[in-house]
Structures are given as C-alpha cells and as structure tokens.
Amino acid sequence: MEKSPVKLSQWDALMLEGLRAYGWSNEELLRKVRERDLPEDHSIYEFEYEELAAFAEAEPEIFESAVKDGYSIKYNTLGGLRSWIAVAYGLEPEINREPGQESVTAELTDAQKERLESVLSLGWAIQDAGKPGVYQIVPLNR
C-alpha cells in the first residue's frame, strides 16, 4: 500500500522550493537545513529560511519525508499556487481572480504538470487550457 505524502503548509512548501532552486541534492538540502547553513533570500518573497529550519527541527520525520518522498500542500490559494509555480519552475503564470473564473494558467512540461498534481491540496484540479502544454489550475468549487 502506497503511503500518502506528508502535508506541508503552503509557505513551508514555498520555502522548500526556494532552497531546491539552489540545485542541492536532497542530502545537501537536509544537511544545510539541519546545520542552519542557509542563504539569505533576496527574492520578492523574502523567505526566512530559519523558520523552515525550526520546522525541520520540530518535525524531522515530516521534513525529511517532504524532501525525499515529496509532499502535498495542506491548503492552496490562487496566489500561493502562482507563487509555487514561480518558485519551483521559474515561470510567471497568469492569475485570474474574476469571480467564477478563478484560475492560475501556466505552460508546463508533462513532468512539471505531474509534480504540480502531486502537491495540490484537495479542492483543486488541472485542466487543459486549449493550447498544447498550457494548463489551468482551478478550484473545484467556485
């Protein structure tokens, strides 16, 4: 029986993806967080990686599983999904906040789409946006 992925807050997931952008292996990432050998973030997000280190210290099994086995996000928002795609993939997706039309639209590879599907919280779906490789992430209940 396949175990379900651990759950991270949207912010912890964003910080983890911010660290992944450095290209470290899983073991390097775990070591740097454990040793609090963390970079200063000068992105628009201004991540305080010390917060992620505190979470990793308090919940070491959850954090290690998130790094090595993947995770799902406890609760997504439109802005959080846009940010996750931007941080994880270096893309700038479009966001639509118009009532009844809420969505995040991005051009993704098959691997990116598959990974995004694995991290989405309950209540979200990925749909084709009418062009090859372009997808809309939409709430199931609007």
Plain-language structure description:
44% of the residues lie in helices and 18% in strands. It has six helices and six strands, in the order E-H-H-H-H-E-H-E-E-H-E-E. Helix 1 (10-20) crosses helix 3. The mean pLDDT is 95.
The mean pLDDT is 95
Number of strands: 6
Q: Write the element-wise H/E pattern from the N-terminal end onward.
A: EHHHHEHEEHEE
Gap between N and C termini, in Å?
A: 33 Å
Percent helix range: 40-55%
Q: How big is the Rg?
A: 15 Å
Per DSSP, the total helix count is 6
The portion of residues forming beta strands comes to: 15-25%
Features:
142 residues, alpha+beta, four-stranded antiparallel sheet, 6 helices, globular
Task: Reconstruct the topology from this structure.
Layout: E1 6-8, H1 10-20, H2 26-34, H3 49-58, H4 60-69, E2 71-73, H5 78-89, E3 94-96, E4 103-107, H6 110-119, E5 124-128, E6 134-139
Parallel strand pairs: 1-2
Antiparallel strand pairs: 3-4, 4-6, 5-6
Helix pairs in contact: 1-3, 1-5, 3-4
Short characterization:
The protein has 6 helices and 6 strands; from the N terminus they run E-H-H-H-H-E-H-E-E-H-E-E.
